[in-house]
Every structure is written in C-alpha cells, then in structure tokens.
Write a structure and sequence with these properties.
The strands form three sheets. The protein has a two-stranded antiparallel ribbon with strand order 1-2. The chain has a two-stranded antiparallel ribbon with strand order 3-4. Among the domains are: about 90 residues; about 110 residues, no CATH class; about 220 residues, no CATH class. The longest helix is centred in the N-terminal third of the chain and has 51 residues. With about 600 residues, it is mainly alpha-helical. It is rod-shaped and about 240 Å long. About 65% of the residues lie in helices and about 0% in strands. The N terminus and C terminus are likely disordered. It is built from 19 helices and six strands.
Length: about 600
C-alpha cells in the first residue's frame, strides 16, 4: 500500500503490523482457513480505505473552505483597500506564506482594521455630505426646519478614498465661504432696508416679511435664509425704497426751497423757521448724505407742505407790502449809488397792476429783485468813479468853507480855536488847488467807463460829463470874474490916487459889499472872489440849480422822472453875461467918489 510507504505512516505501519500479527495469531488459534483469512483481510483493507477516503474528503472540504475563506477575505481586503485608496501590502507578504491557515491568519487582522477604518470613513463622508447638503439647501432655498423628515444621507461605499474626502471638504469650504458671503450680504441688505424704513418711517417687519417671513424671526435657533430668492427680493425691496426715497427727497427739497423763498419774502421770525429745521437742512445735502431717522416721513412732508400752503395764502395778502418794501430797498440802493430807479415798478404803478390782476405779484417781486441785483452790479462798476466824485464833492465843500472863512474879519484875531481854523484853511487851499486835476481825472475815467459799456454815466439822472463840463465852464467864468474884479480894483485905486492929488486929502476908505450884492460875487479875505450859482426862483424859500434833463429814453412806456441836483455840496456856479459888472456901476457904487462929470 502507498499509504504504508509514506514516511509519516511508519509509526502507523508498525502498529498495524503488530495488530495484524496479533490478529493472525488469533486466527491461527481459532483455526481459520486461509480463504477466510484472505476474505477478512480484504474486508479489513476495504474498511481502511473507506476510513482514509473519508478523511481525505474531510481534509479536501476543509481545504476548500479555507481557500474560500482566504479568497473571500482577500477579495474583501482588496475591495476595502480600493475603496479606501490604501496601498496593497498584503500581496507582498502572501508570496512568503505557504499554508492557507497562515494566509488566513495574516488577512484577518488587516481586514478588521480596514473595516474599522471604513466605518470611520463612512461617518466622515456622512457628516461632510450632510453639511454640504444643508448649506446647498440653504442656498437653494430648501428649509431644514423639519430635520426628522429629511432623507438619509447616501454614501458611495465604493469610493471612500482620502482624495474623494478632500474633494468633499474642499467643496464644503467653498460652500461655507459662499454661505458667509451670502449671510453678510443678507445682513447688509437687511440693515439697508432697516435704515431706509427708518428714514421713510415705514414698517420694517412688513417690508421684510414680503420678501421672506423668516427674516422677522429672532433667536439663536433662527437660521437666516440666504437663498437667491431672498437676495433678489431684498435687492428689489431696496430698489423700491430708494426710488421712494428719491421721490420724497426731491419733493421735500422743493418744499424746503419754497419755504426759504416765502420766509425771505415775508421776513419770518427765527422761531418760525426753527420748527422746520429738519426739513430745510436737507437742501445742502446730497441724496446719499441724508440718513437721519424719520426725516423723509410722510407726516413731515405733509406738515411742510401745509406750511407752504399757509405761507402762500399769507403771501398773497402781504404781497403789496412786500413789493413796496423791495421797491423802497431798490430806491435806497439807487439813492446811495445816485442811479435813477426803473419807473416801471414805481409804488403807484405796482399797486395798480396788483389790484387789476394783470401781473402776478410774485413776478413783480422777482422783477424788482432782478433790478436790485442789476443796480448792485452797476454800483460795483461805478465804485471807482463814485469815489472820485466823493473826493471832488469834499474838495468843493472845503472850497465853500474857505470862502466863508476868508470873509470872516476876525479870522486872525486871538481866540480859542483860531489856530485850528488856520490849519484847516491851509489844508483847504491845498484841496482847492487839486480840484482842476480831480475834475480832469474824473472826466477821463467817466469817458473810459462810457466807452467800455457803450452807455452814458448818469448821476441822479444827469450825465456826469455834462455836470463836469458845466462846472468847468462856471469855474472858468468865476476865474475871469476874479481877474476882472482885480483889474477894476486897480483902476479904482488909481482913480482914488488922482482924486487925492486934485483935492489934497484922502478920504477914509470904507469897505463896501455893493459889488458882491450887485453881481452875485463874494469878496474873500485874500482878494479872491467866489461866484455863487445862478439860481432860478421857483416860488420857494431855497432856490435850486436846475440840472439838464435826462434824455435816456423811455422804460416800460413811462418817462423817467426829472430830478434836481442840489448845488449846496457841489457849489456849481453858472454866471451869465447879463450879471457881469460894468465899470460905471462899480465906480458909482463907491461912497465918496466924485461924479463922473467932475473928473
């Protein structure tokens, strides 16, 4: 038998041989036949073969089971390694192992470790996917308030590698950043809506509820919605609120401008203006700078509009008074600038126009204000010439004072203040000597001004150049009269000397003012004479010098009213040839002079 020939069956062979010899010995003692012995040995061999066959089958089955178990675990190990993305180190160890039990013993602990790692990896994937789905749902608008009804998280167990997990984590971080940006944007939109609702005094809760009711909820458990619909709804709400804000700002600015105009027209008190300080303060602000709460409320706008309506009604009743006040202001400015005011807005005519209803009082008031602006601009352009006129007038006043001073017989007598008058007289003579230069310079400036603006320079309705030319002519006549008087004085002194020689005695001289009284001249202490203006008696106690009439034309169908220029400060002199002194009248007026026939 091959089994007996095996090295491992040596001990068995020895035992079986002993038992076989013992069995043969027993058969011999019993007396069994050879045929019976062969038959029993044949049965014994069959029974042994059956036992060996059974044992071989059992061993084969055990080996198959081991192979199946090793193959299954190796397959599971390969699957886990592939799913987890692990490197297969078992294949290198398997080459060094021979028995199946050794292979099974080496695979089992590694498989257990991979199973544990798989469970952990599945838990990681479940958590990260749950967070990703939650954020994705928030972004898409899905509500997670009922988590119990949420579907379970499905994890692909065929790919549990770290690479896949890192991809999920990267995607999760991207979603987290998107969520943070959206949350920041939602909060920014909500704050802007709150600010606009505060300015417009609107119900903030009602406005945001129309976008998403969850925006009104508060508390730690509350999750702010960050969906695209919410962002778009908030953006549309902000757009509508900004349009409403723009409309209200424009309306309030128009009302504030009307308030300012009405206040200025009627000189409203500061207390009355202070009541609407919040309204008027927005005039100087841009739309983005207006942030005060409730400043654009409909109540505020209605109150300001009601005030405008009240002031408008009040303005209609006080318009005549306002027009008259502005007209007086215009006339005062014209008086200071020596400009003729426009007669189209004279008080009598303005009242007649307002009463007839032909002209809107506001337009008439605006016309007067425009005239005030125009007069102020013209006054500014005339300033240099007006300053020279003031200087000329001041010099003429000094000349008038000097004439009066020279006629004072006690000017050199000792007394209080005499030295002061002497010093002033010296200054006055210096100023009087500058008058011709001042007049020439003033005429040159006036000609330049008229040429530049292509219009006449009028002084109280009279062309200034005409006044200056008349003054120069009068002054020239005055100087000629002074020269003629000096010549006549010399001739009179010569005649007096001849009379003394004829009669042998010199009559006591007497001062006479007949020359001045007869000819309108005043003798000064220094022998000079100052001509007085030519005056026309018009039935009044104080005659005035008639100035040339203005020929500037018509304005609004009305001629300019003729004005008179007083000669008191200017001392204009206009002597006619009929008023000159004849030699005979001068000689005949001297007391004590002999008759002409006796000479």
């Amino acid at each position: 038998m091959q089994v007996l020939e095996s090295p491992r069956s040596f001990l068995m062979d020895t035992s079986c041989g002993a038992l076989l010899r013992k069995l043969q010995h027993i058969w011999d003692e019993i007396g069994e036949t050879e045929e019976e012995k062969d038959r029993m040995l044949l049965e014994l061999e069959k029974e042994c073969l059956e036992v060996y066959r059974r044992k071989v089958d059992d061993a084969s089955n055990a080996k198959a089971r081991l192979l199946q178990s090793v193959a299954a675990k190796e397959a599971e190990l390969a699957t886990l390694m592939a799913a987890l993305g692990e490197i297969n180190l078992h294949s290198q160890t398997e080459e060094r192992l021979t028995s199946l039990k050794e292979q099974l013993a080496s695979v089992t602990p590694l498989l257990e470790d991979l199973r544990i790692k798989k469970e952990e990896r599945i838990k990681q994937f479940t958590d990260i996917k749950a967070q990703v789905e939650k954020i994705s749902g928030e972004i898409s608008g899905y509500s997670h308030r009922n988590d119990s009804l949420a579907s379970p998280i499905n994890v692909d167990e065929h790919d549990l590698s770290l690479r896949r997990l890192n991809e999920y984590q990267t995607h999760f971080r991207i979603l987290q950043k998107d969520k943070s940006d959206r949350l920041h944007k939602v909060l920014e939109y909500v704050n802007e809506v709150h600010s606009l609702c505060g300015m417009l005094r609107l119900d903030f809760g009602k406005v945001v509820s129309e976008v998403d009711p969850s925006l009104r909820e508060t508390g730690q458990e509350h999750s702010t919605t960050i969906s695209n619909d919410t962002l778009d709804g908030l953006a549309q709400a902000i757009l509508k609120l900004n349009i409403e804000k723009k409309d209200r700002v424009q309306k309030l600015k128009d009302i504030a401008a009307s308030l300012f105009e009405l206040w200025n027209l009627m000189d409203s008190a500061e207390e009355e203006r202070r009541r609407f300080g919040r309204v008027t303060c927005i005039l100087g602000l841009s739309e983005h700078e207006i942030t005060e709460s409730s400043v654009l409320a409909l109540e505020v706008i209605d109150q300001a509009a009601a005030e405008v309506e009240r002031l408008t009604k009040l303005k209609a009743s006080r318009m005549k008074e306002l027009v008259l006040k502005k007209r007086l202001e215009l006339e005062e400015i014209c008086r200071r600038a020596h400009i003729e005011p426009d007669m189209s807005t004279a008080p009598e005519k303005a009242n007649a126009l307002i009463d007839s209803g032909l002209v809107d009082p506001s337009e008439l008031l605006a016309n007067i204000e425009a005239q005030i602006v125009k007069v102020k601009e013209e006054s500014t352009s005339r300033k240099e010439i007006m300053d020279r006129i003031d200087k000329w007038v001041a010099a003429c006043e000094e000349e008038s004072w000097l004439e009066d001073y020279n006629q004072d017989e006690n000017r050199y007598s000792a007394g209080r203040g005499v030295h002061i008058n002497l010093k002033r007289a010296e200054r006055a003579r210096v100023a009087v000597n500058k008058i011709p230069g001042i007049v020439d310079s003033l005429m040159n400036k006036t000609y330049a001004w008229e040429e530049e603006r292509n219009m006449a320079f009028l002084y109280d309705g009279v062309r200034l150049v005409s006044i200056l030319e008349e003054y120069k002519l009068t002054r020239q006549q005055k100087e000629e009269e002074k020269k003629r008087f000096r010549d006549q004085k010399k001739l009179q002194d010569l005649l007096l000397t001849e009379k003394e020689a004829m009669y042998g005695s010199k009559p006591s001289p007497k001062r006479t003012n007949s020359f001045k009284k007869a000819n309108g001249l005043r003798t000064n202490g220094n022998g000079s004479m100052t001509p007085t203006p030519r005056r026309h008696t018009v039935g009044c106690a104080t005659p005035e010098l008639m100035t040339p009439r203005s020929n500037s034309g018509r304005q609004n169908g009305y001629f300019k009213e003729m004005r008179r220029l007083s000669t008191a400060p200017l001392n204009f002199v206009a002597l006619s040839k009929e008023d000159t002194i004849s030699f005979a009248s001068v000689y005949g007026s001297e007391p004590g002079s002999p008759p002409q026939a006796q000479i």
